[in-house]
Design goal:
By secondary structure, this protein is α/β, with parallel strands linked by helices. It is built from 15 helices and 18 strands. Helix 1 runs parallel beside helix 5 and helix 1 runs parallel beside helix 10.
Amino acid sequence: MMSTEHSPRIAILGGGIGGLAAAAFLREKGFDSDVYEQASALTEVGAGLVIAPNAARLIRRLGVLDRFIKRAVRLETGWEFRRWENGQVLSAENLQEGCIRLYGEHTYTAHRADLLDALRSAVPEHSIHLGKRCVAVEFEDDRAVLRFEDGDTVRPDILIGADGVHSRVRGAIVGPTQARESGICAFRALVPAHKAPDFARRRAQTLWIGPDHHLVHYPVSGEDYVNLVAFAPAGADSVESWTATATVPELLDEFAGWDPRLVELIESAETPGRWALLDREPLDHWNRGNATLLGDAAHPMFPFFAQGAAQAIEDGAVLALCLAADPDHPIAALSRYEELRRRRTARLQEVSHGRSHINHLPDGPEQQARDLQYAQADPLRENGWIYEYDPQAAVS
């Protein structure tokens, strides 16, 4: 580890998965950082996520995989597509063997809070500042200034904006960015495992696909819960929020007429969250002066490839490697980081966007052709460009 005696003062705005991953990887390379989080407690709202091999390898590298897998679930089956009306299995992938053979690591599912806990364990407590609500991000001669609600002002040598889809740092770097309505509404919910049907308690990531809708489920939280994420046409009252809620009857209405087993699973759900998916084009640039972006602040993407958290973790790893490679020229290191990450994340934004149309085809010839393609596909191998990614090799 390099000495931190003369290392730059690094501020990270946002204490979610991306912000803590960045802080952890920076620490691994010998850099101190300060994480500023507006919440009074470091908790992760939301529900489940998938940690594919590209992210799991990095969690292992941080030395916190053992802590993570105490509550994470190692998947045995993934890419299990089922037909909406009768549950017919269109395709399924053996992840238990394939992930290790191809990518050297398993695929896991977890509650977001469990991933956040693992990442936090790699960051010193003195680096995390809670209850710090940023009210303005300004630039003075291309140097970022953070102003907080409590009156504090911070002038870091490097600013990392990890403050999510409504990022203040992004607004200061690139100006206002317009988001388009995607027409898709997402629901998320947890089902206590003892209430879930047997098929949903398997260590499997299952995707039910049908006209204008699809629903994903998998176990989380040490298999105590089954996580549901459902997608449907957006209503006028849908908002982009992690805290808005719906009702179980509203979610049931969206999947009326689907396989009775799926309906039974939805009936056992706790209060669903609901939010609108907004469509954003990839940014032309992420940096300004001594500031850069990371995770959803830089590249929000539809969740259809389950790579949002993984890409934020990759961002943190690459950013730390770039700074370690050129510690005396942090602005150049930030430029290198953007150059290395922007093309990959833009590609994932684009392919995730395209999946929404494919999964929601109405019954008919196009749907039948899709189902045949799924039956013949090997998505674990075909998406190797996602899962084999190595930040060290990318930076070298």
